[in-house]
């Protein structure tokens, strides 16, 4: 249900941004430090929205990656705590080294 609300809010934001951008089509002067250019305001609005979404998405991916690593580390700690090293099953390498012929 949470994902549905997020999707609804995202679509609502996209609709509001699109309407706002279409209403503002007059050219504006964009001043980069090294150059100036005149471009329609609709492009400035849509580009800013897109770049903002990409930046937020990248931060979200980094956060999710860190949380995933932390979960794996904690699961390993839990496994080691439940099964101490002396009680862990020993891998039988002798049976794997000699193939069984039937």
Automatic annotation (TrEMBL):
Transmembrane segments: 41-62
Keyword Transmembrane among record annotations: yes
Keyword Chloroplast: no
Domain (Lipopolysaccharide assembly protein A) ranges: 24-79
Pfam families reported in the protein's UniProt record: LapA_dom
Organism of provenance: Paenibacillus silvestris
GO cellular component terms, A-Z: plasma membrane
Name this protein carries in UniProt: DUF1049 domain-containing protein
InterPro entries: LapA_dom (IPR010445)
Chain intervals for the UniProt region annotation (Disordered): 83-102
Keywords tagged on the record: Cell membrane, Membrane, Transmembrane, Transmembrane helix
PANTHER family cross-referenced by the UniProt entry: MEMBRANE PROTEIN (PTHR41335:SF1), MEMBRANE PROTEIN-RELATED (PTHR41335)
């Amino acid at each position: 249900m949470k994902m549905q609300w997020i999707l609804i809010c995202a679509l609502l934001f996209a609709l509001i941004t699109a309407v706002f951008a279409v209403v503002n089509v007059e050219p504006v002067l964009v001043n980069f430090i090294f150059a100036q250019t005149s471009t329609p305001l609709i492009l400035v609005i849509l580009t800013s929205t897109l770049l903002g979404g990409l930046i937020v998405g990248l931060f979200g991916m980094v956060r999710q990656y860190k949380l995933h690593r932390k979960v794996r580390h904690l699961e390993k700690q839990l496994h080691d705590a439940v099964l101490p090293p002396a009680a862990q099953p020993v891998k039988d390498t002798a049976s794997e080294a000699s193939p069984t012929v039937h």
